[in-house]
From TrEMBL:
Keyword hit for Transferase: yes
Protein name: Glycosyltransferase family 1 protein
Biological process, per Gene Ontology: enterobacterial common antigen biosynthetic process
Key words, A-Z: Cell inner membrane, Cell membrane, Glycosyltransferase, Membrane, Transferase
InterPro entries per UniProt: WecF (IPR009993)
Gene Ontology terms, MF aspect: fucosyltransferase activity
Pfam families: Glyco_transf_56 (PF07429)
Provenance organism: Bacteroides nordii CL02T12C05
Length: 239
């Protein structure tokens, strides 16, 4: 299978990667040299930075969100066991289950575990599809985002969380990608080391502003357009 994939990949004259993690993997596994890493263009309006967001969403509960889909319900269960002590504080927990799939037994196990620690009034299984506006609203109201996937996934949610000042606990490729950009994020393994108070402690305002500035610059459409113009210029010169 690896040989077949390598043959298919090497049929392409150029491959553009979204992040350097993909670039490194293509070289490591398929000996394919990537010349261009260009992030996807995005709606910059959703990334407008506003200090008022933080003051508004910090009132009341510390909202914890587990992402990013039902395929990894096992990860959710593992993460809940790591952060169960936070349920003794004024926190709520939401698990994103509105796409992907898991067995009914695993769903019920997750539901039972969440209710056991947080109760029915503070534990939520998000099973409904959200409009894009409501999705951004969910992320804006989030204080802590946890994603245990080792592979690259849910980057849009992570980027948005970082702009909104959310404290992120990540793993694998997702962690490496945003750390390489210079963002202040935490590893999933930190959940086993940090105290409850340290886990739920928000980022400082300076840290939030730093993360937001980095992501907005990385996803700046003028910058991305210039990168695509350079891409077309280079490949035309190669002809």
């Amino acid at each position: 299978m690896l040989f077949f994939k390598k043959r298919v990949i090497n049929m392409y004259r150029e491959i553009v990667c979204l992040v350097s993690e993909d670039k490194n993997d293509l070289y490591r596994f398929y000996n394919y040299i990537i010349r261009f890493v260009i992030p996807y263009a995005t709606d910059e309006n959703k990334y407008k930075f506003c200090d008022g967001v933080y003051c508004e969403k910090k009132a009341g509960y510390t909202n914890i969100l587990l992402g990013n889909n039902a395929w990894k319900a096992d990860y959710y269960i593992r993460d809940i066991e790591c952060i169960k002590e936070t349920s003794l504080k004024k926190t709520s927990l939401t698990c994103m289950m509105n796409y992907g799939n898991c067995s009914l037994d695993k769903f019920e196990e997750l539901k039972s575990l969440g209710i056991q620690y947080w109760g029915k009034d503070r534990f939520f299984l998000l099973t409904d599809f959200l409009s894009i506006d409501n999705y951004y609203l969910l992320l804006k109201k989030t204080d802590i985002y946890i994603c245990s996937w080792e592979t690259q996934t849910g980057l849009s949610a992570i980027y948005t969380c970082l702009v909104y000042g959310v404290k992120c606990f990540l793993d694998g490729a997702n962690y490496n990608i945003v750390r390489e950009l210079g963002c202040i994020v935490f590893k999933i393994t930190d959940l086993k080391i940090l105290s409850v108070e340290e886990i739920i402690m928000p980022l400082t305002m300076e840290q939030k502003k730093k993360n937001a500035a980095i992501i907005k610059e990385w996803l700046n459409n003028d910058r991305i357009n210039a990168m695509w113009n350079n891409f077309y210029s280079v490949i035309n010169d190669d002809v």
